[in-house]
Design brief:
Blueprint (H helix, E strand, L loop, with lengths): L1 E4 L4 H9 L2 E2 L15 H9 L10 H21 L2 E4 L3 E4 L4 E3 L3 E5 L7 E8 L1 H7 L1 E2 L5 E2 L2 H14 L3 E8 L3 E8 L2 H20 L7 H11 L15 H35 L4 E3 L4 E3 L27
Length: about 300
């Protein structure tokens, strides 16, 4: 059953999203989300934690400029568009989505479509967007599947990705609903929710999930001790941990030596200019900072002294 909901506020919107796999999350199930892994998403959905993507400056300005970009596209193309404030979810599939704009009027097309706005840095466009020798352009995979997910949730047949590149170049990509991709989304989402029901978490990617895993295991039961004396794999990991820690100490000490030497050369100069580099060493004014520190879990490895 498809539900169309207008959230009362941001908290209501975030709580709605916690119930579903959304268009900005679904790419994690295929392994190509730049924001979250399947492992982290699994634990956040299992525990009903709100998943918020931390915005960088480019993303913030992209949001602020959405209306202007959409208005410019509508004016150039003769479309009628409106901002979509609704959240749509397909309850039976547990998928949901927010949207940028609805194409309400399109010359020659009786049905409504979607308009997804992207404000893209010129360098990012060159590095992450693909253009073949015929001039055909593909957005990054997480954006392409985001749009297919939105078409699936909204039950619409077409969408446009409107990308403003470098502040002055418009790229407009038309996308038809791809039933094979939509079927793959349904399959991945079903397997995801089934795995939560059965308690079978996906394998973590330690390189990507390390920070989240440290926060996931951020609690210790006072007085609890486990015996790992027979685990040779953990011994090897602990030895490497010690070795890397020693290397960090040496590197940190050397960095301090180099910094001291450089400061002794530039003395009280705020900036020093070299042939291939510059040194900035300005002052940061004093400030009074007062806050409550949250509890946290300590971690250290202590080695037994050799007899």
């Amino acid at each position: 059953m498809r539900q169309i909901i207008t959230p009362d506020n941001k908290e209501h919107w975030l709580n709605l999203r916690a119930q579903d796999i959304t268009s900005t999350e679904v790419s994690a199930l295929f392994g190509f989300s730049p924001y979250i892994t399947a492992f982290e998403l699994w634990h956040r959905k299992k525990n009903q934690n709100i998943v918020e993507i931390e915005e960088n400056e480019r993303m913030k300005w992209g949001t602020r400029l959405q209306d202007a970009i959409a208005a410019g596209i509508a004016e150039e193309k003769g479309w009628g568009v409106r901002r979509m404030d609704e959240y749509i979810r397909e309850e039976s599939l547990r998928i949901g989505s927010s949207f940028d704009f609805s194409i309400e009027e399109f010359p020659g097309k009786p049905e409504k479509g979607l308009l997804e706005i992207k404000n893209v840095d010129g360098l990012v466009f060159k590095q992450q967007w693909e253009e073949d020798e015929d001039g055909l352009i593909e957005a990054p995979l997480h954006i392409e599947i985001q749009v297919q997910h939105q078409l699936l949730v909204s039950d619409r047949s077409y969408a446009f990705i409107g990308a403003l590149v470098g502040g002055n170049k418009l790229i407009l990509l038309e996308r038809q609903r791809n039933e094979k991709v939509c079927s793959a989304i349904k399959s991945k989402v079903k397997a995801f929710w089934d795995s939560i029901e059965s308690g079978k978490e996906p394998e973590p990617d330690l390189a990507k999930d390390a920070s989240f895993m440290c926060s996931l295991y951020g609690y210790a039961d006072a007085g609890k001790v486990v015996d790992i004396s027979g685990d040779q794999d953990l011994l090897a990991e602990a030895l490497e941990y010690r070795k890397l820690g020693d290397e960090i100490k040496v590197a940190d000490s050397r960095c301090k030596e180099i910094k001291a030497k450089l400061l002794s050369v530039i003395s009280d100069a705020e900036k020093a200019v070299g042939g291939q580099f510059t040194i900035s060493a300005g002052m940061v004014g004093p400030a009074h900072i007062e806050y409550d520190r949250e509890g946290y879990r300590t971690f250290r490895i202590s080695w037994k002294k050799e007899k």
